[in-house]
């Protein structure tokens, strides 16, 4: 309960500070938010489950030790923080999605060679307790003979999903999906 209140306070203060102090090229600090989520899971008693789809209707389900959670989330942790290091290299569009009832911040690079290709932060507006519902990050690394695209979505206080697409020259594209769930009522 205290952690929940602290998280809400942090989000509210971060949004207030960010909206008041924002410079023209600032981007929402999504990575800081995800690091806070990871720290919360690290200190929780939630059971953590990793799901990998085998077919359309079956999953390989594995219970995960708390110590392994950071390793599973490493693709998020190893993502460049575009809110700090790349100031001015990204543009951010803010809009209200009336169909979803969410405010969406979409950051895209001015230079297509940057690793992070898209970042979306979806916020449920409910002043003063605005809540981040999810963060989507798409990043691509190109090598001489291949490219790896990661489409990652973090669902606040619930789960994350990483879709990895590997394209090697002269080979078929390979896609893998991993989902990690915690604090879920059914807990799969």
Strand count: 9
Most strands sheet: 9 strands, antiparallel
Number of helical stretches of at least 4 residues: 4
Beta-strand residue fraction: 35-45%
Unreliable segments of 5+ consecutive residues? 5-24
Detailed description of the structure:
The chain is an alpha+beta fold. The protein has one domain. The chain is 22% helix and 41% strand. It has 4 helices and 9 strands, in the order ααββααβββββββ. It has helices at residues 2-21, 30-42, 69-72, 74-77; strands at residues 48-53, 59-64, 90-97, 102-109, 116-124, 131-142, 146-155, 159-168, 174-181. The protein has a 9-stranded antiparallel sheet, with helices on one face. A hairpin with a 6-residue loop joins strand 4 and strand 5 (116-124). It is globular, with a radius of gyration of 17 Å. 18% of the residues are buried. Residues 5-24 have low confidence and may be disordered.
Characteristics:
globular, single chain, nine-stranded antiparallel β-sheet, alpha+beta
Q: How are the elements arranged and paired?
A:
Elements: H1 2-21, H2 30-42, E1 48-53, E2 59-64, H3 69-72, H4 74-77, E3 90-97, E4 102-109, E5 116-124, E6 131-142, E7 146-155, E8 159-168, E9 174-181
Antiparallel strand pairs: 1-2, 1-9, 3-4, 4-5, 5-6, 6-7, 7-8, 8-9
